[in-house]
DNA sequence: CTGTTAGCGCATTCAC
DNA sequence: GTGAATGCGCTAACAG
């Protein structure tokens, strides 16, 4: 049985441009021109093509389009892990903003391993991505070079330094770490601990720690009196790290954690061990995740606008695509959210 | 300057199969065969091709491969939102497992809107995905039909019903809801409230609620005595819903929430309002997110193995690709995790 | 076992 | 303005 022209046609298994042209009574070339917005097409002709495409439910074959035009409308993103809300939020913002401009995102994860990141980058290049969004400024020496040679735009997030990328969207981790130190100093703290993320291959963790330490030593605190441990980002590790810290250095009055995840674990340990927060020890987190407001006391933390970072990254990508700009740095504001987990130190040197 | 054979060659801007063949001294067909693991190639020849590919850093052009072979190694996934950890975890498991088999995932979000889901599905088809992972069994009437006609494998998650899909990976939401009811009945509760997710277009929320209600009415509780409100999944809404519930029906002894997100908000409200949990009201969540262990008291909740669901989905997809199976149902275990937010009701009808 | 040939669906050059 | 022809990089027939 033939389809009757004008009825809501049952779509063929795959509608191709040829089918649209056939129905519109023109050549595929014309149909292609219309669908791609090339102005040089008669108004009537254009109408018919558009109508035909709509009726047939035409969806362009991206593989063919990509092969022909060298443009895939695909963006790759490599994050350490999707399990961490801070990255999930960033990807969410990126994906939604990009989708509005017809671009799709392919996601992959490196588990904080720069070598894996490099492999993933190659794979994404094979997939034809036009740009790759990376986290941080520190990468395998070959990664960015490789992207460059492949004509893929590298973009860094979680940093405000362009480095070897075409765009950086983020904030100054070092400054953020320093601002936490400043806040704690102003509260009168003298004995500091830090539970940092694993700094190996992770510039964000490194910078946060170094900014924190620099501010403290600048204030006359001896580096040797500051205890720093590193821990993978999960609650259980945060708890364990806090235990080891407090058992070894019971006189610490405050502990800065490189992530809320760790801070929340730290607070859990304090509960168990009967250590008052902030009475005996003040705890500060980083990221301002939802969990920061769930613990008791609520967590003082540095707010990172993850979703906005994803959106801003998308916008940078879009602008880069217009070729009007060649290098973009978007610095996002961070700010300290003071809640109940921090307090002043009494003149005796113990928290009030 | 010419590249010298044998040195670690600087990769050309884009290395093609032809380049590999050239260097290996064979035809592109042979090179293709080697790279695709077709056994019928001589050992020496295969060696040389492999070596050439490695030295040049050859990465196949997926667009061309896709166009020619109708196989893209691309899987699409449409989830309500990446902001909800339960979906982020699922995607994480899916992505990692698929990556091990050379498949990539394109992600998109529907914001719980079945019409948006339908649009996203079409877009993903245009991208050439071989399968699409959907959440739940309820979809726009055209969505699955469309996928079928386009030759794209539809897979449902968060459900154990095959429906119109080729594979279902998940659990019985109705049964899960019922098991929560059973647990609360056994504790002696008589006055029940529920903060469900928005059930419109969301079979998971609907089933959880219906299973809960069915078990209760089956136990002789009148439907009219059970108070159900619906709320979007975020903490603030959970808090507001709990407020409205407790202010209007102060005699409720227990409230079941369709997600830990809501439950956590509910508990926050109880803290503010001075309502003892579980002394005055028992609260149960759903999902067993990390946040369940962060609130005080810790949350009794139904564990949903989200990451495993993603992994199992990937495996179902892989098996479907082998064409040995044609329909796969994988039911995952859920179990109630009893923590501190629930307790028995005293003979007086109030919680003990 | 290996090379030659012919498209996959589309965007674009070139004629008209 | 519009149509016919070309080829993007690769894989799958087909020969040899």
UniProtKB/TrEMBL annotation, chains A, B:
Pfam families in the record: LacI, Peripla_BP_3
Gene3D superfamilies (alphabetical): 3.40.50.2300, lambda repressor-like DNA-binding domains
Keyword Protein biosynthesis found: no
TM region positions: none
Keyword list, A-Z: DNA-binding, Transcription, Transcription regulation
Record bears the keyword Cell membrane: no
Record domain HTH lacI-type: where: 15-69
Protein name, UniProt field: Transcriptional regulator, LacI family
Organism annotation: Pseudoxanthobacter soli DSM 19599
């Amino acid at each position: 049985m033939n389809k009757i022209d004008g009825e809501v046609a049952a779509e063929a298994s795959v509608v191709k441009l040829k089918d649209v042209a056939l129905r519109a009574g023109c050549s595929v070339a014309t149909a292609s021109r219309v669908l791609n917005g090339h102005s040089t097409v008669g108004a009537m002709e254009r109408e018919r093509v558009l109508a035909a495409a709509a009726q047939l439910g035409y969806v362009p074959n991206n593989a063919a389009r990509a092969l022909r035009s060298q443009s895939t409308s695909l963006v790759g993103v490599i994050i350490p892990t999707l399990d961490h809300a801070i990255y999930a939020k960033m990807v969410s913002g990126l994906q939604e903003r990009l989708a509005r401009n017809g671009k799709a995102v392919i996601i992959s994860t490196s588990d904080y391993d720069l070598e894996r990141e490099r492999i993933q980058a190659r794979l994404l290049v094979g997939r034809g991505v036009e740009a790759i969004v990376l986290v941080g400024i520190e990468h395998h020496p070959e990664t960015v070079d490789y992207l460059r040679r492949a004509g893929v735009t590298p973009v860094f997030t979680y940093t405000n330094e362009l480095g070897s990328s075409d765009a950086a969207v983020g904030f100054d981790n070092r400054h953020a770490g320093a601002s936490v130190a400043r806040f704690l100093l102003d509260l009168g703290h003298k004995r500091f601990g830090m539970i940092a993320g694993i700094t190996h291959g992770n510039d964000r963790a490194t910078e946060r720690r170094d900014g924190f330490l620099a501010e403290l030593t600048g204030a006359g605190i001896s580096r040797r009196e500051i205890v720093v441990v590193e821990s993978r980002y999960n609650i259980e590790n945060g708890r364990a790290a806090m235990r080891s810290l407090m058992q070894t250095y019971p006189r610490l009055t405050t502990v800065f954690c490189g992530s809320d995840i760790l801070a929340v674990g730290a607070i859990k340990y304090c509960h168990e061990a009967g250590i008052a927060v902030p009475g005996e020890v003040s705890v500060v987190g980083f990221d301002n995740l939802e969990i920061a407001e769930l613990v008791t006391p609520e967590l003082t933390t540095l707010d990172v606008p993850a979703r906005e970072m994803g959106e801003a990254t998308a916008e940078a990508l879009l602008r880069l695509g217009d070729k009007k700009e060649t290098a973009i740095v978007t610095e996002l504001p961070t700010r300290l959210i003071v809640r109940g987990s921090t307090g002043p130190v009494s003149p005796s040197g113990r928290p009030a």
